[in-house]
Design a protein that fits this description.
- The chain has 10 helices and 5 strands.
- It has about 375 residues and is an alpha+beta fold.
- The chain is elongated.
- The relative contact order is 0.06.
């Protein structure tokens, strides 16, 4: 609908320009019959509506001699030239405009001679072509600029999505490596105990056979686990996995780096290793985000809970307005959310009314 409205408006403009040129021709007394002029004008406008976008160069080259013979088609020629400069390269538009100017100057020189009217007419038409081509090039440049901005925005959005997916994948791989260590340890213990039961002489033959089956199955399961998940382990990732007991050392490292961090550990009872590992990673990533987005701000870390209510990890830091911040893509919070979701917990984060940024994660107390 919008396209046809534009085409209709351009047809009206071409009709008005053609009427102006026809009136000028009639005043000079050398015009064709009025019905011939109107028919030529309708044909030119029809060609403008049908071929302005698809074949602007051919349309303009047809309208140039057509407009030199009749007055009405001259109104469609500048609009066709505008389409050439809008949809084709600049060199093509300049070449077509030059053809129009040379043809016009030659025909007018034969018809009028080197008179004042000739120079005025040629100057007017050449200036009209220059203005039309210049405006079309400006519109073309503006459209290209808008398209480039849209493409950059699309690429930036795709890059952000890629970074978020990489963060999720990295967090899942790290969790998989941690689970590999935990499961490998437990399966190894199972195999050891089964092997001990198998070699006990006082045990019945049936129990020793069952223990042998359990030991062999445990070894096979351990080997399968290493083949499936062990490939995720990085070459330098052979250190033991952290637990909740390592959080004070992590806080101390942040303090040595210049951060002001307060720690509150209020977990009642021994925390399961897997749960403590999740809490450690959440605190670690939250401290990293605080250093990036609120450098120099005080940070409060609280890890509280018990077996009945679960474990709660809270990290608060003051918001820094106008201060220097390190660039970030928001992948840290995505990684924390991925870990909390896989652990079956809940995550809340955002600014508070007290002018702080709060991150609160609840994790179920599972062994």
């Amino acid at each position: 609908m919008r396209r046809w409205l534009i085409e209709g408006a351009l047809a009206v403009v071409a009709l008005l320009l053609g009427s102006f040129f026809l009136a000028t021709t009639l005043s000079e007394g050398d015009a064709w019959p009025l019905w011939a002029e109107l028919a030529a004008g309708l044909v030119a406008i029809a060609g403008l509506v049908l071929f302005r976008r698809s074949r602007p160069v051919a349309l303009t080259l047809v309208l140039i001699p057509f407009g030199l013979l009749f007055g009405m088609p001259m109104g469609a020629a500048p609009i066709a030239l505008f389409a050439v400069a809008l949809y084709r390269p600049a060199r093509v538009a300049v070449g077509v405009a030059a053809v129009h100017a040379v043809s016009l100057a030659g025909v007018y020189l034969i018809a009028l001679g080197p008179t004042r009217v000739y120079w005025e007419s040629v100057t007017f038409m050449v200036l009209l072509d220059v203005i039309v081509v210049a405006i079309a090039m400006l519109v073309r440049s503006q459209r290209q600029l808008v398209r480039s901005f849209a493409e950059r925005a699309r690429q930036a959005e795709q890059g952000q999505q890629l970074r978020l997916e990489q963060a999720r994948l990295g967090e899942r791989e790290r969790i998989a490596r941690e689970m590999h260590d935990v499961l490998a340890h437990r399966i190894s213990l199972l195999a050891v105990h089964a092997g001990a039961l198998e070699v006990r002489r006082e045990a019945p033959e049936g129990e020793r056979a069952a223990a042998g089956v359990i030991r062999q199955s445990a070894y096979e399961a351990l080997e399968d686990l290493r083949q499936v998940i062990g490939m995720l382990r990085e070459p330098a990732d052979d250190r033991p996995q952290p637990t909740l007991a390592d959080v004070p050392a992590l806080i101390e490292q942040s303090r040595e780096a210049g951060a002001r961090v307060e720690l509150e550990l209020g977990a009642a009872g021994p925390v399961p290793a897997g749960l403590g590992r999740h809490a450690y990673r959440i605190v670690q990533e939250a401290l990293t985000n605080a250093r990036k987005h609120a450098p120099g701000a005080s940070v409060r870390v609280a890890v509280t809970g018990h077996a009945e209510r679960g474990l709660v990890v809270e990290v608060d830091n003051a918001l820094v307005a106008g201060g220097p911040t390190l660039p970030g893509a928001g992948a840290g919070l995505v990684g924390i959310g991925e870990r909390v979701q896989l652990a079956g917990g809940r995550l809340e984060h955002g600014p508070t009314t007290a002018g702080e940024f709060r991150l609160r994660a609840w994790l179920p107390w599972t062994p």
